[in-house]
Amino acid sequence: MKYYDKLIFELSKEGRTGYSLGSSPFAASTALPENLLRSEAPALPQVSEIEVVRHYTNLSQMNFGVDTGFYPLGSCTMKYNPKINEEIAGMKGFQALHPLQPACTVQGALEVYYNMEKSLSALTGMAGFTFNPCAGAHGELTGLMIMRQYHLLRGDLKRTKVIVPDSAHGTNPASAAVCGLDVVVVKSNADGLVDVADLKPLLGDDIAGIMMTNPNTLGLFEKEIGEIAGLVHECGGLLYYDGANMNPLIGMVRPGDMGFDIMHLNLHKSFSTPHGGGGPGSGPVGVCEKLVPYLPVPKVVRKEDGTFDVVCNDEKSAGQVSGFLGNFGVILRGYAYILTLGKQNVKLAGKFATLAANYIKESLKDCYKLPIPSICKHEFVFDGLLDDGSRKADDGTVEREGATTLDVAKRLLDFGFHAPTIYFPLLFHQAIMIEPTETESLETLDAFIEVMRKIAAEAAEDPAILKNAPHNAPITRPDETTAARQPVLKFQDEA
Predict the structure, then answer these.
(1) Is 284 part of a structural domain of the chain?
(2) What is the greatest pairwise CA distance in the chain?
(3) Quick one: 269 and 349 in the same domain?
């Protein structure tokens, strides 16, 4: 371990200090009451100023982000966020707005909400959007709440089941369960698409709808989506579109035209805003014309005189899912992204993302197992190495253990690349899910391909190199299960 890889507490030496404060003439008048004072001093580290600066500067340089390196993270589009978006979000007129200000004092902000709703509606084929959800999974829950409200207000109380493909994102069944709906799984066929034959027997008067991602989690376009939409609508259900994989379709194909009734978008994926970390992001939800009355409140409306107002009550609304209208700063960044590209150029994002994915796939299929060889969209899945380096003795016993998908991911870290998504989707035992984005250069893609080929060669010749990776990281292979189930959240001085 390097000296500055230690915890700040481990650098502590009694008597050292990083500050010098003079006596205050106001000390007596500002003294805290006795009952609020500690009985003993807090166990804070005692370090000099230079040690504090070096420690936290080194920590900041250990972070990996899209601004520092390539993120081939499958099923979670990690595209670069243009800095002009940040500049616009930081404009003086948009800073320090308060959600409780009177509508007449925030007309510009309300116009952004309104124009962004119209832009997303045009791009997706939906009739209206809400920006209230603060993350993609929050958007899923909101969309399912709208689905339930629609059926409930029609008196269709039997519809308590949602169909989810076996290749779906894990948030789909989780969101359905939180919404009080039962999950029914539909299988995929040999081509990795929804098996229509398996779907038909599942449809009935107890189906509230189906949740789908298109392209699906394997990066494949659901070619039977028209037939699926017809079947689900015929049984009285609704189609929900998980917008996590919308990036290759922007400006090219609209979910509304495929037959979807409800959808959510991840602004941090398709529209190049910062990732939300589960909360401070944006997962807007769009609906078709008949479901607009069920959108959550509050919402922005444009009055006849051209000004904007906020409506907080609606009889059919699915309710309120957040405190206010949504994360304005993130929505503003997404709006800037759309305006920057314009109607003609927005479709180029999806085209280049699709080109990049197929380029990497074709360049590596002689080193990694490609279970479904068809043309993909923005992402694709390998099923481990073609030659993992495993060897058997003449008697059939294992002489040498081969490298696994986890080993490949760990070895990638030594070359400065973030690992792709691994062991997902669950359709493949050794899944390696790769998604480049349209923002990566040919040189970056070639460098990634070169490293992946090198790793494949290492696995075939000496898999121990991979099994002991990463070799250059501050930590190597922590016990992730224990870390998740029994996290150590504070420093414990063994002395």
Answers:
(1) yes
(2) 86
(3) no
Peptide bond into 293 cis (omega under 30): no
Predicted local confidence at residue 1, as pLDDT: 59
Could you tell me where the DSSP H helices lie in 79-224?
83-89, 107-124, 136-153, 171-178, 196-199
Percent of the chain predicted with pLDDT > 70: 97
Average pLDDT, the chain: 93
Bridge partners, 164 (sequence order): 185
**What's the rounded Cα separation, in Å, for the pair 237 and 231?**
9
- Please tell me whether the overall predicted TM-score, pTM, comes out greater than 0.85 for this model: yes
**Tens digit of each residue's pLDDT (9 = 90 or more) over 266-304:** 999 999 998 866 567 899 999 999 999 999 999 999 999
Taking the CA atoms of residue 463, residue 468, residue 470 and residue 474 in that order, the dihedral angle to the nearest 10 degrees is -170
Distances (CA, A) of 199 to 165, 194, 206, 213, 429: 9, 8, 14, 15, 24
Strand partners, 333: none
Contacts of 326 (CB under 8 A, 6+ apart): 113, 130, 131, 132, 133, 134, 282, 284
Which residue range(s) make up the domain with 375?
Answer: 345-485
83: tokens are: 């800095």
Indicate the number of domains in the chain. Answer: 3
